[in-house]
Design a protein that fits this description.
The protein has helices at residues 2-10, 13-30, 69-81, 98-105, 153-163, 192-199, 212-218, 234-240, and strands at residues 32-38, 43-45, 49-51, 57-61, 89-94, 110-116, 124-125, 138-143, 164-171, 184-185, 206-207, 222-226, 248-252. With 253 residues, it is an alpha/beta fold. Strands 7-6-5-8-9-13-12 form a 7-stranded mixed β-sheet, sandwiched between helices. A two-stranded antiparallel ribbon has the order 1-2. The longest helix has 18 residues, at 13-30.
Length: 253
């Protein structure tokens, strides 16, 4: 594992991501076992891979899907608590995660649209602050780990609210420091190095605190601050390698 860790620490992240998707079948075979389960592919592994900027989190990246803790938490919520996998739904997925993309596209019950400003694999190139959709057209909207990149996150939240149907729901996960009452942002910080120092990643513009949920409420959402792991046993949390205190922001219109 020494060489593997060296590669993870030295190869630029975009290249590493591309290589990791090519290597996914090999990784899934190599790490097969019984200790941990990825609920997204249903496979068992002897260990997960490390992941993270700077100081890496051990045993969190599932070899078969390359899902992280937050992806597996979202999957379990959708599977166990919603009709997402069975009901006819019109879905918008902004910056779709690779571990979900093909699986969601394959679901016959979904009218599934993906959008992003830069990613080449989406259906529609779109700016989250000016979405090219009519009002109230989607039953479900996903926008995960995007808002921390957006300077005018209020405008982005307003757009998410606008395109969601009444009685629809959205899930908008973000990196969050629950020890902070208020979000930390400073738009005078612009260099990648300083952003990494202050916000944890070179392209982040803030660290959200607990007031994130009220920011969503301010644009009209009814927000459920859901600690879904409270519904799971400690054994299950460890088996799926989840973060036990992560809050899932489930937003309703």
């Amino acid at each position: 594992m020494g060489l593997f860790k060296t590669i993870l620490n030295t190869v630029p992240r975009p290249i590493l991501i591309k290589l990791s998707y090519l290597a996914r079948p090999f990784l899934a075979f190599w790490f097969r076992g019984k200790a941990y389960t990825d609920p997204i592919d249903g496979h068992n592994y002897r260990r997960f891979l490390p992941y993270g900027y700077g100081q890496q989190r051990p045993n969190v990246l599932a070899p078969g899907t390359l899902s992280l803790e937050r992806h597996r938490l979202l999957w379990l919520y959708l599977q166990n608590e919603t009709s997402f996998f069975t009901a006819p739904l019109k879905v918008l997925h902004l910056a779709p995660e690779q571990c979900f993309l093909k699986r969601f596209k394959a679901l016959k019950n979904l009218d599934y649209t993906t959008a992003d400003l830069y990613a080449p694999h989406v259906d529609i190139k779109a700016d989250i602050c000016n979405l090219p959709f009519a009002d109230a057209v989607f039953d479900v909207v996903f926008c995960n780990h995007v808002l921390e990149h957006i300077t005018d996150d209020t405008k982005a939240m307003q757009e998410l609210y606008r395109v969601l149907k009444p009685r629809g729901f959205g899930i908008f996960q973000i990196p969050q420091d629950l020890s902070k009452e208020k979000t930390y942002e400073d738009f005078s910080i612009t260099s990648p190095a300083e952003r990494t120092k202050h916000f944890g990643q070179y392209d982040h513009v803030r660290i959200y605190g607990r007031d994130y949920f009220n920011r969503l409420r301010a644009v009209g959402f009814k927000v459920q601050e859901l600690n879904y792991c409270q519904n799971l046993s400690a054994k299950t949390i460890e088996q799926y390698r989840l973060v036990s205190d992560e809050i899932l922001p489930v937003c309703f219109k």
